[in-house]
């Protein structure tokens, strides 16, 4: 038995009868860049998220960079980001000549610690980028109130949480629709995934949408007219066609992952040495990752044990961003993030897992302890 983190080949086979005709139609059209599937997918995703604008682009990292460019983040500016996250959130800030200011997360939901964010704000701070890690958000009412108090923009990183809702100011809304921009990735392992790279930005602001769309296409309002400094970052028609097939199935996909997550929570409850993931009271979880905390220094040994039993697991993430060589100039004290780097372990949670698979995984975890 070999249980992988993902089963992309079988997920494709389940959709093959719908995907092949969609790809064939694009190939026969001869319009591979900025074709009709791109326009239609953007509108369909906007309708799904209940936002005014979706601007597709080349990948999730580009989405973050384009959002910050549209908000005029520049050299000398500071942008607050979590210390415990994927590196892209800091990378794009540095590429714009701005400074990423790392802030520790809180230990229960792995979200930005709002009190520590408040301490990090100064006259150079221009924006905050909360990362909805593993598939949920937390403390957004408090974070947005703080941002409003200081006149800061908020860009939501929804790469792991697309499709999740959040009770924001008493109203249930999709993540990505709350800030100046929401950003996502369609990387093949994401819940809404294409067969290559892809990404998108969401906004309800007409002016920002127009600016972001220009930036993503060499700063052009129309062909061969360049009004802004831009980048070359477009979702191609083939990937858009794949996403058109997958989007109507996203809710069912997330429901399947919710079922698997609940099985884990039931079967692993009261396992000594483990802390199971918690869901923020205002949040809906997409379970992009089902991430446990392994206490007492046993994480790596458990990972090895599972591997020996044919079970894949992953560490997201083994280091804080500030301890990476490229970011060592941005030092700080991040005790919660550093502890999480030593404890977190993500288990398989893809929808093709059977109940027998989940029981086997849980049995092997319990056997370890």
TrEMBL record:
Family matches, as CDD domains: AHBA_syn
Active-site residues, Swiss-Prot/TrEMBL: 190
Modified positions (N6-(pyridoxal phosphate)lysine) in chain numbering: 190
GO MF, any single term: transaminase activity
GO biological process per UniProt: polysaccharide biosynthetic process
Keyword flag Transferase: yes
Keywords: Aminotransferase, Pyridoxal phosphate, Transferase
Transmembrane segment boundaries: none
Pfam family, one: DegT_DnrJ_EryC1
Domain of life: Bacteria
Recorded family membership: Belongs to the DegT/DnrJ/EryC1 family.
Name by which UniProt lists this protein: DegT/DnrJ/EryC1/StrS aminotransferase
Native source organism of the sequence: Pelobium manganitolerans
